[in-house]
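Proteins fold reproducibly. Look at a concrete instance:
___
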Amino acid sequence: MHIYKVGGAVRDRLLGRPVSDVDWLVVGATVEDMHAQGFRPVGADFPVFIHPKTGEEYALARTERKSGRGYGGFTFHASPEVTLEEDLIRRDLTINAMAEDAQGNLLDPYNGKADLENRILRHVSPAFAEDPLRVLRVARFAARYAPLGFNVADDTLALMRQLSVSGELQALTAERAWKEIERALMESQPQVFIEVLRDCGALHELMPELDGSSQALAPLRQAAEHDQSLPVRWACLMLAIHDTTQINAVNQRFKAPRDCQELAGLVGDCLPLADRARELEPSALLALLQKFDVYRRPQRFEEFIAACQMAAFARGARSYAQADYLRGAASKARGVDVKPLVARGLTGQALGEALKAERLHVLAQHKATASCV
């Protein structure tokens, strides 16, 4: 039995980046061998085990062959006869197909180290074109390593184009596709993810609503530069879609998390109102605040303001005065105390109308004060 450190841990060490998760590969062992040493299987059909002390994952060396459509359409074969080289060749990129032995020696049968040094994302073998998920993975790696100068190799991009027109992308589950999208959006240059998908034709297959837009990336780039949250980044990407029905369709297609879905839809609906917030009458401003439920969900309104700011910065603005105005309005509305109204004996509809009147009053004062500044 031989145990190797493989994949991202080796890659990131060579790049001088922090190593968070370590994947281990076991060559020359059986399932029974792993059980005998106290390893716990992750699942019944996959040769991955949990170390009894460290909790890290150890996978038996395996080969695979295409047996159906999509990311899950593969048959795996794990046995003690599978070599390190046979296991590594099934991986996506050469920079992910390196290993280290127990003494720290690098084993690099597919020249991943050279591709790291030359800043190239290159597929390991033609089998790359059998897995549609790799289109999204390569685009995500391109976004992650863009600051280091990495580019996708021309022949790899050609295979990605081949996958894009094959119909295989349609076999990806929404959950698996979203996992890659989410991780890509949180990289430092997420716009590169979209650019690579567009270059290989995958964007047309996955998000045709964005494919022809020249406005898709500037707000997203600003959101990344300002270290915004995932919902804000997703909403900024969706800003290129001016039809909220289409935004909702994209949300549903990838089963985006609820907070991402809600914010994207609200930004699509309400951005024009935010941009002219100072012009709004108190009744319209109150309606906007209540649409966001600023009393119970203030964070969602704050993320809305952030998305509006990113859109303004993308248009070349250096500041967004509406942000402070909207925050002030929300604070004023939330500050109205219902207790004095209840103490006056108001209930039901009468209480609701009185509360609304108080909020309109403070928003009118807020507008008047802002106009004097």
In short: The CA atoms of residues 341 and 351 lie 7 Å apart. The mean pLDDT is 92. The radius of gyration is 26 Å. The chain is about 55% helix and 10% strand.
